[in-house]
Amino acid sequence: MEHNYQLFFALLRTAMTDEPFEPVPSDQVWSDLFHIAGQQTVMGVCYTAFSRLSKEQLPPMQLMIRWMAEAEDIRLMNELQNQEAARLTQLFSEQGRKTAILKGQANAQFYPDKMSRQVGDIDIWVEGGSKSVIAMLQEMGLLKEQGKVLLDHKPIASYHHVNLPVTKDHIIVEVHFRPSSGNFNPFTNRRLQRWLEQEIGSSCQPVDEGFNVPSVRFALMMQLAHIQRHFLEEGLGMRHLCDYFLLLKNATEEDRQAVAPVIRSFGLRHTAEALMWVLGEVLHLEEEKMYCKKDPYRGEWMLREMMAGGNFGHSAQRLKTDSDIVYFLRKHKRLLQMVPFAPSEMLFLELNCLKDLLIRIPERIRYRKLSLR
Question: Domain of 267?
Answer without folding.
Answer: 215-315
